Amino acid sequence: MSHPVMPEPDAGTLARRGEIVAAMRRIVPDGTIDGAVGMKPYESDGLTAYRTVPLVVVLPETVEQVAAVLAWCHAHDVKVVPRGAGTSLSGGALPLADGVLMSMMRFNRVKRVDFENRVAVVEPGVTNLGITRAVEHEGFYYAPDPSSQIACSIGGNVAENSGGVHCLKYGLTTNNVLGVEMVLMTGEVLRIGGAHLDAPGYDLLALIVGSEGLLGVVTEVTVRILRAPETARAVLVAFDSAEAAGLTVADVIAAGIIPGGMEMMDKPAINAAEDFVRVGYPRDAEALLIVELDGPPVEVDHLLARVEAIARGRGATDCRVSTSDAERMAFWAGRKAAFPAVGRISPDYYCMDGTIPRRELPTVLARMRELSVKHGLRVANVFHAGDGNLHPLILYDANAPGELEAAEALGADILRLCVEVGGVLTGEHGVGIEKRDLMPAMFTETDLAHQIRVKCAFDEKHLLNPGKVFPELHRCAELGRMHVSGGRLPFPDIPRF
């Protein structure tokens, strides 16, 4: 996987910059930014290795403004990149030099909460944690909890189908979103789903969640809220090998136990997190599992005993069960802080995201160690182990010649390994630009053509977030002309976008 190549900026669009900026100012008078300094914060998302200054930034605050911006850009063939909080780790919100960047962070209201029917209607700029804060006084919460939940927006969660440490039992974003209001590139406003259990007809909502800003701009989200569990306790389990921890994960699920969360960290991640938050993680452990059970107290006690027995049977060197909610939250504090903590032990790191069958965890961990040696870079591992979602953190120094390229190559090998063992390229971060050129490793020419046809049905001109997800950009009339043989694209030395 080489450095992603984005489409060449359109010279005609760049020449019309003054006209485009003036149009945006007419539509969004107090929310248009066109100065170099003002646009600087928008040049990158969480994948900070790649940066582009946008043509212009707009911050609409009404559905009418969103629709007017999109309709104008559609009529004048101007590209648009939607952006939430900018925490994407796959480059999904990377701007285009010839495109309008549309930030949705002014859409930040909780519009309605219906506790009786257990739903909340929110705007896309509301933070993930903000939903829980709005309902917790009545004993409710919003289940998906990305590690960036204090900052990431619900609109971005919808775009990337975000997960989190408690998604093993309660599902990803797609399992907790009931409906959206969305504006198409033409300016047409759609409502799909709503505050009901199931919608008639095709399941378009499942198509939209995880569509990475390619199909429309979400302006409202209806989410499911859950009653907080009666009891939640966590057990911290240490192992002297990562393979033993991986086998324990498979054993717990095979025993019919579905924890609220089951996370795994290896030794470099354990020590980085402990240095950062000091919650008492065992520094000598090669791997650490955090397993949380929730429900009625008698059920939680019973399942904790079973999990501990399974772990002891796999050679666990230590098991520590939380005795208070504060201690349980401390266990999670280290895991939630793992990504920033690793930033203390390396000038830069590249956070990958792939998913594998749980049974392959020991094999993949061993192979990843070999790949780490091959590329000469360290890797700290943090997993949503219960659902096989890996987050290898590749440590490198961007100022050292060749290290970014080595990190990209190691990341590509890890993702190919995920596919090889029966997994997929991503679990929750999305494809964006990061995994775009690896899509043919997982999908055939026919698969990709059908996916692009869906894109064409919503955005025939390919003006919404172009250059992302698909390894080769087609005009809708050209579908079927690309030939892929043996998983290899023709003329692989030609840059693709």
Automatic annotation (TrEMBL):
**Cofactor(s) named in the record:** FAD
UniProt cross-references to Pfam families, sorted A to Z: FAD-oxidase_C, FAD_binding_4
Report keywords, A-Z: FAD, Flavoprotein, Oxidoreductase
- All copies of the FAD-binding PCMH-type domain together span 50-228
Q: What InterPro entries does the entry give?
A: FAD-bd_oxidored_4_C (IPR004113), FAD-bd_PCMH (IPR016166), FAD-bd_PCMH-like_sf (IPR036318), FAD-bd_PCMH_sub2 (IPR016169), FAD-linked_Oxase-like_C (IPR016164), FAD-linked_OxidoTrans_Type4 (IPR051914), Oxid_FAD_bind_N (IPR006094), Vanillyl_alc_oxidase_C-sub2 (IPR016171)
An annotated Gene Ontology molecular function = FAD binding
Q: Does the keyword Oxidoreductase apply?
A: yes
Full protein name: Glycolate oxidase
